[in-house]
């Protein structure tokens, strides 16, 4: 096993301290903000993670020799993963209901409320809102997560396919997909009648099970096993699709997600996954 350390703020002494806790044979520089600790002790994981969090360092234990060619698909959650906001919370803000909706969103992401129930409750609060609020959220508040475009440029260069799978809404996933040139997207569709949100979703809800099925379906279309998929998410409703992946990535995620993911990026951008591979 190797240990990849990444930080834009940590002193070299902090990196060396973490490497020592991992009993690394040596430290190799990957780039200015990433280091590979070679032949580490997997039993040191708990101590390494505690020291890394304290120092503001992302630490990933990874098998030696992993290459980008081992994978063929990168699948991403949208809200708070590919983008920096929760779209439904920002839509609710147009109704003066952001605190109520955000509270339900947070509970769902922590796994305290089943996602299907939480989405139904949140969307119901949007009834009567002018549909123009969706465009305002996209234009004024939606920002791409740090490192996303760099990661995607590299993904395209090595031939990875790209999937955006979201419990959010097609209004946003369609636009993000087109903006970034993604290959696939799948999400929920808000019902709009006479220019107003009805407070309902059309069709089946894209919940945790449907996210998993979507990753499996796209892999099947690409004639590849799910072990060749990298799946990124931040909330409890991402865990099932992350579980079928060859590499699961928790991006600035809830504790329940970080605990189950192969990789936790707490401080790096999404391009932090690129340092995991040996070229």
Automatic annotation (TrEMBL):
Cofactor entry: Mg(2+)
Keyword S-adenosyl-L-methionine: no
EC number of the protein: 3.1.3.3
A Pfam family that the UniProt record links to this protein: Hydrolase
Residue numbers annotated as active site: 77 (nucleophile), 79 (proton donor)
Statement: the UniProt record of this protein carries the keyword Glycoprotein: no
Catalyzed reaction equations: O-phospho-D-serine + H2O = D-serine + phosphate; O-phospho-L-serine + H2O = L-serine + phosphate
Pathway in which the depicted protein is active: Amino-acid biosynthesis; L-serine biosynthesis; L-serine from 3-phospho-D-glycerate: step 3/3
GO process terms (BP): L-serine biosynthetic process
Gene Ontology cellular-component terms listed: cytoplasm
Protein origin, superkingdom: Bacteria
PANTHER family associated with the record: PHOSPHOSERINE PHOSPHATASE (PTHR43344)
Family, similarity comment: Belongs to the HAD-like hydrolase superfamily. SerB family.
Official protein name in the record: Phosphoserine phosphatase
Species of provenance: Noviherbaspirillum pedocola
């Amino acid at each position: 096993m190797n240990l990849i350390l990444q930080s834009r703020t940590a002193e070299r002494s902090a990196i060396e301290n973490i490497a020592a806790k991992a009993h690394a044979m040596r430290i190799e520089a990957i780039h200015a903000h990433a280091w590979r600790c070679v032949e580490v002790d997997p039993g040191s994981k708990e101590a390494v993670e505690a020291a890394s969090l304290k120092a503001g360092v992302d630490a990933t234990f990874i098998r030696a020799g992993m290459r980008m060619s081992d994978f063929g698909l990168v699948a991403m959650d949208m809200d708070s993963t590919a983008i920096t906001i929760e779209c439904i919370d920002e839509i609710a803000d147009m109704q003066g209901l952001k605190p109520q909706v955000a509270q339900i969103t947070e509970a769902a992401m922590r796994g305290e409320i089943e996602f299907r129930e939480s989405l139904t409750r949140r969307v119901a609060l949007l009834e009567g809102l002018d549909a123009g609020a969706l465009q305002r959220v996209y234009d004024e508040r939606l920002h791409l997560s740090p490192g996303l475009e760099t990661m995607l440029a590299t993904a395209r260069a090595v031939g990875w396919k790209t999937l955006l799978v979201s419990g959010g809404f097609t209004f946003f996933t369609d636009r993000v997909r087109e903006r970034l040139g993604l290959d696939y997207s799948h999400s929920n569709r808000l019902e709009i009648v006479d220019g107003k949100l009805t407070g309902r979703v059309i069709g089946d809800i894209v919940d945790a099970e449907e996210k998993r099925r979507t990753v499996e379906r796209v892999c099947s279309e690409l004639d590849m096993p799910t072990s060749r998929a990298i799946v990124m998410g931040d909330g409890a409703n991402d865990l099932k699709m992350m579980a079928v992946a060859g590499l699961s990535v928790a991006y600035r995620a809830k504790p329940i997600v970080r605990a189950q993911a192969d990789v936790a990026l707490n401080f790096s951008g999404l391009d932090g996954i690129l340092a995991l591979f040996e070229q």
